Amino acid sequence: MARTILPFGPQHPVLPEPLHLKLTLEDEIVVEAVPALGYVHRGLEKLCEVRDYKQMIQIVERVCGICSCLHALCYCEGIEQMMGVEVPPRARFLRLVWGELHRMHSHLLWLGLFADAFGFESLFMQCWRIRERVMDIMEATCGNRVIVSVNVVGGVRRDLDAGQCAWILEQLAIVEKDLKQIQSTILSDYTVCSRTKGKGVLPKEQALQLGAVGPMLRGSGWAQDARQTGYSAFGEIDFEPVVEQDGDSYARCVVRFREVLQSIDLIRQGIAKLPAGDLVAKAKGMPDGEATTRVEQPRGELFYYIKGNGTKNLDRVRIRTPTFANVPPLLAILPGLELADVPVVVLSIDPCISCTER
Amino acid sequence: MDAVRGLAKTMFEDGYRFLTMSAVDLGDESLDLLYHYDKDLDLKHYRLTVKKGQAVPSVSPVYFCALLIENEIRDQFGVTFSDIVLDFGGTLYLEDDVRTSPFCKMSVTQIKKEG
Amino acid sequence: MFTMTKNVVRNLLTKSSTRLYPVEVRGHFDGYRGRLDNKIEDCIFCRSCQIKCPSQCITVDNKLGIWECDPYACVYCGICVDACPTHCLSMSKEHRKPTAEKSLIHLQGTPKKKKTATAKPDEAKDAEKAEDAAKPEDADQS
């Protein structure tokens, strides 16, 4: 049996961001995988010593472009916990609406890339075309398509009036109709199924111990989702995590697709229950002490540990992103696969390497 | 110090999930290492204060997912962990010829151990 | 083969789903953060924008009355617009066109001296009080 060591990445057509894996192969079956990170390390956590805690919101948003609003939300919640600020109810519901819009656009982006990974380019284009409508909603309501900058300490910066809410609901109805049209292709097409069913199986017992989070964990049968802790307005609306039992790439794809439909429903509930009120609560004093917060990003559970020392510069901001937690399970599911299946399985964990190496 | 690995084993048997580790430089020759565990949305945190240059036993034989974060803390803060399951030897983020740990406030140079 | 004919005829008769870009531009929604503008006549050079900017791209000199911004370092977050006390900063929805060289936005205004800066709000307050009092002779004067 001849052993070859093959470098996967850092440049690869399938990967949106550079990730280097050294695959040890025995005649096309993967035996071992060793990661090498550090290609997009920007040292953003160290900037907290130079910029004050309010400027850090903008920096933390730029850790990841696709999930930027949720990074800012987690950070703001941590600072609000430390300073004892109570966010007004309207701001909490607005944060929920924009957070779920982010989840939709991230999952639609992933669905497109996943289709592209096995060569199905027209499905890739259709998914991104549906995504354009979500980006239009974000541009019209927040001012920017991707990095929206609406969260501030104590609330949000922009408001949604009744006309905008009605327009959002119209656009979401069109998005839902388009999604139902492509549903049968994504979920039951012969090519999609033969390339994803049974590949990259993460067994249920190992998933929790290896530290998997997000759709990887929920695709293996565990109903755990950080939204169940009830941050922002999740305590006040109906929400159940989406779970699949098989643990392979197909299950993860189904979880993400059903989460897009679930997000549309959550946004409708959020807009229906939107209370009147202020947008921002005043924050007095300086952050002092320690705080930990968790938020459900599209890729999994995001964890922040913030330590303040009473001045305007924070002592430490520690970010643990979901892809960071999903890399060890990836190393455990790669052995046993054929080389041609490796790109599809790597993409099925939804790697966001700029988050991993902030 | 030895309680670290014993605690990890107890947590593993109780079904807790290893969330992450954080490290904070306390500024006066010591570092705070915080271990975060979670079970069913219930978070538990454990704090370990070590002096710079002291070796800490690794929890990666118990929890495989800890290896990435221990390598990263080693690169950023200069804390050495003994028997990490997959040890990068300080090269996960840093180059071979970098001597100072980026996150430490005091300018303490880390002697690169072999391996 | 007959399904193909149906598809072909339908595609020929419907509009294309893409836009002819340089000829037909969609434009941006209102509220899009495209470009930072400053009405330099209203600026009081208080430096709030410089202090709050996360990327430190604005430089203000209050003695010479110079307001400078590096549009290539700016991240277009809009924090300076929210922080400006006189609302002279605004973001327009047209974005900058591509250029061949980098340049700074350099605006020169008149630096406000201390006396005139406090006199202006006082004059404004006096004028308002006069109008509020609603006396006929004051109304005629203002």
Arrangement of strands in the largest sheet of chain C? 2-3-5
Mean pLDDT, all residues of chain C: 75
> Biggest β-sheet of chain C, characterized?
3 strands, antiparallel
| Gross geometry of chain C | elongated
H/E element string of chain B? HEEEEHE
Assembly annotation:
heterotrimer
Enter the CATH topology name of the largest domain in chain C.
Answer: Alpha-Beta Plaits
Q: What percent of residues of chain B adopt helix (DSSP H or I)?
A: 10-25%
Give a short account of the largest sheet of chain B.
3 strands, antiparallel
Unreliable spans of chain C are 116-142
Report the span from N to C terminus of chain C: 83 Å
Radius of gyration of chain C: 25 Å
Strand-residue proportion of chain B: 25-35%
Please write the string of helix (H) and strand (E) elements of chain C: HEHEEHEEHH
Termini separation of chain B: 23 Å
Q: How would you portray this structure in words?
A:
The complex is a heterotrimer of chains A (358), B (115) and C (142). Chain A has one domain: Cytochrome-c3 Hydrogenase, chain B. Chain A has 12 helices and 8 strands. The longest helix of chain A has 29 residues. The radius of gyration of chain A is 20 Å and the shape is globular. Chain B has 115 residues and is of the alpha+beta class. Chain B is 21% helix and 30% strand. Chain C is 34% helix and 14% strand. Chain C is built from 5 helices and 5 strands; from the N terminus they run H-E-H-E-E-H-E-E-H-H. The longest helix of chain C is centred in the last third of the chain and has 20 residues. The C terminus of chain C is likely disordered. Chains in contact: A-B, A-C. At the A-B interface, strand 3, helix 7, strand 7, strand 8 and helix 10 of A face strand 1 and helix 2 of B.
Question: How are the SSEs ordered, and which strands pair?
Answer:
The complex is a heterotrimer of chains A (358), B (115) and C (142).
Chain A: E1 3-8, E2 20-26, E3 29-36, H1 55-61, H2 68-83, H3 89-117, H4 121-142, E4 151-152, E5 155-156, H5 162-188, H6 190-196, H7 204-210, H8 215-218, H9 249-272, E6 288-297, E7 300-309, E8 316-320, H10 322-333, H11 342-348, H12 353-356
Antiparallel strand pairs in A: 1-2, 2-3, 4-5, 6-7, 7-8
Helix pairs in contact in A: 1-2, 2-3, 3-4, 3-9, 3-11, 4-5, 5-9
Chain B: H1 3-14, E1 17-25, E2 30-39, E3 42-51, E4 55-57, H2 66-77, E5 80-82
Parallel strand pairs in B: 4-5
Antiparallel strand pairs in B: 1-2, 2-3
Chain C: H1 2-13, E1 35-38, H2 48-52, E2 58-61, E3 66-69, H3 79-83, E4 89-92, E5 105-108, H4 114-133, H5 136-141
Antiparallel strand pairs in C: 1-4, 2-3, 3-5
